[in-house]
Specification:
Layout: E1 5-15, E2 21-26, E3 33-46, E4 50-57, E5 62-77, E6 79-87, E7 104-117, E8 121-126, E9 133-145, E10 152-156, E11 158-167
Parallel strand pairs: 1-3, 2-4, 3-5, 4-6, 5-7, 6-8, 7-9, 8-10, 9-11
Family: Belongs to the glycosyl hydrolase 28 family.
Protein name: Polygalacturonase
Main location: secreted
Length: 183
C-alpha cells in the first residue's frame, strides 16, 4: 500500500515468503500522502523479512493514521512489527528540510498479534524526534524468538498504550497500563 488510500479492509490473508504486509513509501512525492482507516484482520505471515511494516520518507509530508492490525499469527518473521519514519535520500523535499518535516504516524493499533521472530528485536518503533509517532497501541501481543528465547522491543520517539499481555514488554512512552505483564 502506498499513499492516498482510505477505507481499506484486508482479511483472511496468508503470505510468505517475501516482504510481509507493507504500508510503505508514504511521502515519497512532493504532494502530501494521506493514508487512513486501514484494517488488516486475520492473517498468517511466515518466513518474511517484515511482518507488519509502516515505512515513511523522512522528509515527506502527509500522514498515516487510523491503521489497525488484528488477529495475526507470524512464524519466522525477521521484523514482526515495525514503524520506520527514517526512509531517506528523498529526491524532492516536501517544502522544508528533513530536520523539520516527516510524515505523521498516529492512531496505529496492534491487537492479538502472536508468533515467532527470526531476529532478537520483534518490535521496532523508529520515529521522528520532530514528528513523533503518537497513539500507538499494543493489545495482547505475544512475540517470541524462533529459538524460544525472549525477544526485545525498541522505541524512539513513540508514545501510546499497552493492554493485556504484551511480550516483549512495551517500550512505548506512557504505555504502562493496568494488565500489562512484565517479562
Amino acid at each position: 500500500m502506498v499513499g492516498n488510500c482510505t477505507d481499506v479492509r484486508l482479511r483472511y490473508i496468508s503470505c510468505g515468503p517475501g516482504n510481509g504486509i507493507s504500508i510503505g513509501s508514504i511521502g515519497e512525492t512532493p504532494v502530501a500522502d494521506r493514508l487512513e482507516k486501514i484494517e488488516v484482520d486475520t492473517m498468517f505471515i511466515a518466513n518474511t523479512s517484515n511482518g507488519l511494516l509502516i515505512k515513511t520518507w523522512q522528509d515527506g509530508c502527509g500522514y498515516a493514521r487510523k491503521v489497525k492490525f488484528a488477529n495475526v499469527v507470524m512464524k519466522n518473521v525477521s521484523d514482526p512489527i515495525i514503524i520506520d519514519q527514517y526512509r531517506s535520500e528523498h529526491p524532492i523535499p516536501c517544502g522544508s528540510t528533513a530536520a523539520t518535516r516527516t510524515v505523521a504516524v498516529e492512531k496505529i493499533d496492534y491487537v492479538n498479534i502472536a508468533g515467532t521472530s527470526a531476529s532478537k528485536r520483534a518490535v521496532t518503533f523508529s520515529c521522528s524526534d520532530v514528528v513523533p509517532c503518537r497513539q500507538v497501541s499494543l493489545k495482547d501481543v505475544n512475540l517470541k524468538r524462533l529459538s524460544g528465547r525472549g525477544a526485545s522491543a525498541y522505541c524512539r520517539s513513540a508514545s501510546g498504550k499497552a493492554a493485556g499481555v504484551v511480550v516483549p514488554e512495551s517500550c512505548l512512552a506512557g504505555a504502562r497500563a493496568a494488565g500489562v505483564e512484565e517479562q
